[in-house]
Each structure stands twice: as structure tokens, then as C-alpha cells.
Amino acid sequence: MDSKILVTKATLPDFDEYVQEISELWETHWLTNMGVKHQELSEQLRDFLEVDEIDLLTNGHMALELSIQAMELKGEVITTPFTFASTTHAIVRNGLRPVFCDIKEDDFTIDPEKIERLITDQTSAILPVHVYGNICDTEEIQRIAEKYGLKVIYDAAHAFGVRKQGRGIASFGDVSCFSFHATKVFNTIEGGAACFHDKDFGKCLYQLKNFGIKNEEIVERIGANAKMNEFCAAMGLCNLRHIRDEIAKRKVVTEQYLKYLKDVNGIQINKIAGDIEANYAYFPVLFNEEQFGCTRDEILETLQKHNIYPRKYFYPLTNMFDCYHDLYDTENTPKAFYASKRILTLPLYPDLPLDMVDRICELILKCKK
Ligand code: T4K
Taking the model in full, what pTM does it have? Predict the structure, then answer.
């Protein structure tokens, strides 16, 4: 029986390269709390992502949660429900109220035309998501934020290495939060980072990830423990050496999918804007059942029967989650609701064999009526 083809497969460096990278930890016994590997990776990522300031954290979620805490936001945060649980949870876990804005049909990012009408005297920030590595309308979001005095925190979990108009995506907004989870374009096993401009914000975030400790005798803030450890940072140092090759391989896989799927009636392909240098993080496909002749769920079932496991990223919308029962209304986000019922994220990772892409596409196209 064929082995399972999952939506993604974590990228690993050569075993020997990683062993070499971690070997000095056996000499120093310094395993965490902002050690040498942590510092080295911070510096390399600052250059790679083209940002002023960066801080590494245990994961993308803590980057979001602690960034919100460090900004001391109050009241309401305008955000998108078409995302992973983390984005909304980070707002709610800070005692803030998420206000859900609908998305654009073409790239699934927040629709800036709908943001202004959601602003009240309680609004303190906008938290958009560069979903699938598609970059939000950063100019319009910035214009709105400046007009109303709001902070902008980008959830850039999917956008590692993406550039817009020749500029690294991490420099947009007040903060951009990345995930370096095993499933991401760049991974540190678990990990994340916040990129920002304001040094005072940086000092606060740095304390918050280490229990709020200022020094051995002074604890200034009610912090958490969200420090990236040395083994994760070492994995990052290895993976960063190969990142450009890995993104290039993802591009080849993406282009193979496009050969089959780009002009099919009833299939909407993810659109990459002309001014974007993409990272090919995901390959989401939206099936319009009326034109294609069968539903997303029927296609998913067919693929699963052949041991292929795409995912319904992002269904359900976060404003439909059981844990938020009855608090929010999906009627205000109809385009997000429409997409979440029809979208399927197909397997995509650097070493996915092209003949497997052929097979996946053939199986999908056989479903067409
Ligand atoms: N914001 C957004 C927009 C996000 O998408 C995420 C995370 C975050 C914030 C928070 O960042 P982190 O705190 O996670 O750093 C996965 C990932 O766990 C999650 O990081 C990611 N988004 C989300 C979109 O996908 P699941 O529940 O789908 O993971 P799981 O375990 O089903 O794995 C998916 C596939 O990945 C597996 O079928 C195979 C592959 N895989 C998985 C693991 C754990 C590997 O190849 N190796 C592995 O070690 O959430």
C-alpha cells in the first residue's frame, strides 16, 4: 500500500548538519534562556527578513499573544475569521473582543473596504492575516490605522520570506508575527518571532517572554515563559541555510499544480499579485460545486480513499468555534463563510514528487461533472 501523502511534510536538514550545529551544547551545557544559538539565529533572521528589530519566541502563537499584551491594547480588535485558531485566541486570551471583518474573494485576506465601518470608540487595533502567504492590502490598512490611531499587528505565520514591492513583508505594520512550526516554510521545530520597529515595545516583549523579569531582584511585568530554546534555534540555523532552495522547490510543485488546475471551470486558484515575491507556502483551491459538479467534501473523500490527505484550512471559521458559542455571528462575514465551505489545501512541500502532483490533479479532475 502507498504511504500517506499529507498536506505537508516538515523540512529537515541533513542529520549530520544538525548534529554538528548542536554539538557545542554538550560543551557549554547552555540549553535555553537566550543562549548563543538564539542570538545567532536572531541576527541572521533580522537580515533575512529585512527588519529593524526581531525577537524569537517558542511559537507563533506566543508571538501574537505577547505582542498584544506588550501593546497594552484595550477593547476591540478588528480581525479576520478566515484563519487558524491562534489568531482569534490570542486576542481573546488578552481579554479583548475580536470584531470580525469579511475577506476578499480573490486572495482571502481581510477586505480593507469593510474595516472602517467596524471601527468604534472601543477599537484599539487591526489584526489582519497574510493567509496562505497572500499579502494583505498593507497600504490601505496603514491609511486606516493612521486615520483612527490604531495599532496594526500582522499575523504573518504563513508569510516567511515573502517580499512586496521589493520590501520584506516583516517590516509592515507595528508588529509582524511569524510561526516557525514544523509545518511551515521555515521551521525551528516549534518557534516563532515578532518583528517590529519600536525598541521600547521590544524591551517589554523580551521581558514578557521571560516571566516579566528585569533582573534577579526585579520582576516588572506579569509575563509568561516563551523563550526559544537552543535546540530549536540550532534547527533554525540549519534550515535557514537551505531556505532559498526549499522555496524554489515549492515553486516547481506549485507550477505543476497550475498546469492542470489553472483554467478549469469551477476551480479558483490562489492568486499571487504581480508585486509579490511568493514563498509558495500553501496550495489552496476553491471548488464551486455548481460549476465543478461536485463539492469540496466529495473531492476530499475521493482523495482520502487514495491515501492523499489535503486539509480544509480554514474550516470552520474561528467565529464558528464551539468555544465561542453564540458570541459571534458568521452572517457578518459571508465571503469568509463561502470560502471556508469550499476550500481545500492540497499537499505541498519541497520534496513532493511531481508525479504525485499529477496523480492528485487527475483524481480531482475525474470528479468533475
Ligand atoms: N497564525 C496562523 C495563521 C497559523 O496558521 C498558525 C499556525 C499560527 C498563527 C500559530 O503558529 P504556531 O503557534 O503553531 O507556531 C498546523 C500547525 O500545527 C500550525 O502551526 C499551523 N498554523 C496550522 C495551519 O497547521 P494542524 O492542527 O493542522 O497540524 P497537524 O498536526 O494536523 O499537522 C498538519 C500536517 O503537517 C500533518 O498532516 C503532517 C505535517 N507534519 C506535522 C507535524 C506536527 C509534519 O510533517 N511534521 C510534524 O511534526 O496545525
Answer: 0.98
Yes or no: domain 15-241 corresponds to CATH 3.40.640.10:
yes
Contact status, residue 227 vs residue 58, Cβ threshold 8 Å: yes
What ranges do the domains of the chain cover?
15-241, 243-367
Write the residue with the smallest CA distance to atom 29 of ligand 1: 183
75-127: per-residue pLDDT in tens?
Answer: 999 999 999 999 999 999 999 999 999 999 999 999 999 999 999 999 999 99
180 to 52, 61, 190: CA distances (angstroms): 19, 10, 6
User: What is the distance in A from the centroid of ligand 1 to the CA of 183?
Assistant: 5
Report the topology of domain 243-367.
Aspartate Aminotransferase, domain 1 (3.90.1150)
A 10 A CB-CB count for 146 gives 10
Mutate to test the pocket of ligand 1, among 136, 183, 313 (most ligand atoms within 8 A of CB): 183
Q: What is the pLDDT of residues 283-298, one digit of tens each?
A: 999 999 999 999 999 9
CA count, 13 A, side-chain hemisphere, 99: 18
Q: Is the dihedral of CA 199, 232, 134, 350 positive or negative?
A: positive
Q: How far is the CA of 185 from the centre of ligand 1 (A)?
A: 11
**Contact in structure between 334 and 320 (CB atoms under 8 Å):** no
Nearest 5 degrees, angle CA 87-CA 91-CA 96? 160
Q: Which residue's CA is the closest to the ligand 1 atom numbered 25?
A: 183
Which H, E and C letters describe 32-67, residue by residue?
CCCCHHHHHHHHHHHHHHCCCEEEEECCHHHHHHHH
